[in-house]
Amino acid sequence: MTKYTEKQKLEAVEAYERGQGGLRAIAQAHAVGFDALRSWVAAHRNHGAAGIAAKMRKNYELEFKLLVLNRMRDDGLSCRQAAAIFGVRRHNQVAEWRRLFTLHGAAALQPGWKVQQTKMSRTPRRPKDQGVLPEDQRSRQELLRELQQLRMENAYLKKAQALVRVKTRSVPAKGR
């Protein structure tokens, strides 16, 4: 992984902001990565020169992670956009938070959770004698996952029915 100086970053971002070319042309002219330049431009727009300054590795609190994820959901932001707005150094870190939250809920965003999970298998297993929980004892996350699954199945079936209808209309009658 190539490290860039703050001066290199700022020169490339300012060249792009002045309209001296598109992202790819500026990245090539300044010998920087296209994705890196795109991240720097977004960070610079949101935070100025401080947005592209070298940052130390940082551990984020649960409340901050939830704030980022809620803003992404409410405003329809991508991980890259949310990272730029909130000053998170790596957008793939935000993607990891979203993945963990979707699969395991807010508890998975707690510090140390990942260490505990690597000792066990990725998917928690139920004891064999424990069957399906009654409806009133299922967690909100489980119910939302099931609802999402049912909605996807329903949409798939609707699409399949629509395709069958289109095919039956477009097939010419034999013998004419």
For the record, give the distance between the C-alpha atoms at the N and C termini, rounded to a whole number: 68 Å
The overall strand count is 0
What is the CA-atom radius of gyration, in angstroms?
24 Å
What is the helix fraction of residues, given as a range?
55-70%
Structural class: mainly alpha
Mass-distribution shape: flat
Task: Give the count of helical stretches.
Answer: 8
Number of domains: 3
Helix/strand order, N-terminal first:
HHHHHHHH
The portion of residues forming beta strands comes to under 5%
Q: Which consecutive residue ranges, at least 5 long each, have pLDDT under 50?
A: none
Q: Give the biggest sheet.
A: none
What is the average per-residue confidence, as pLDDT, rounded to a whole number? 79
Domain Insertion element IS150 protein InsJ-like helix-turn-helix: 64-113
Pfam family, one: HTH_28
Protein name: Helix-turn-helix domain-containing protein
InterPro entries: Homeodomain-like_sf (IPR009057), InsJ-like_HTH (IPR055247), IS150/IS1296_orfA-like (IPR052057), Trp_repressor/repl_initiator (IPR010921), WH-like_DNA-bd_sf (IPR036388)
